[in-house]
Design goal:
Elements: H1 10-19, E1 25-28, H2 36-45, E2 54-58, H3 63-71, E3 76-79, H4 84-91
Helix pairs in contact: 1-2
Length: 100
């Protein structure tokens, strides 16, 4: 039931986000032109997107990555490979939509 847009990098993602409101942003950290942390920095700097939930999907799940994600108020950090189950566990930690 989700409508999904795909961007090849952070620059394209930012252009899409400037045009449309999104309920959730899922980003990788490693992208050409603009990486995930730079994208999230820009989103957090704008009042319209400051509170938009962000989930990071990355092969770099290190203590430093977790610390930086926490500083940016990221909803979740998922180690690759991404699965539907991992994403749902981050979005609904209590197991019920609307409760987590």
């Amino acid at each position: 039931g989700w409508i999904v847009d795909v961007a090849e990098d952070g620059t394209r993602a930012l252009a899409l986000i400037e045009q449309l409101p999104y309920d959730l942003i899922v980003t990788d950290l490693e992208m050409p032109r603009m990486g995930g942390f730079e994208l999230i920095d820009k989103l957090r700097a704008e009042p319209r997107t400051r509170a938009t939930p962000v989930v990071i999907v990355s092969s770099r799940v290190t203590p430093d990555t977790r610390r930086r994600a926490k500083e940016l108020a990221v909803k979740g950090l998922i180690a690759k490979p991404l699965t539907r189950r991992k994403l749902l566990e981050v979005l609904y930690p209590t197991g019920e939509p609307g409760k987590g």
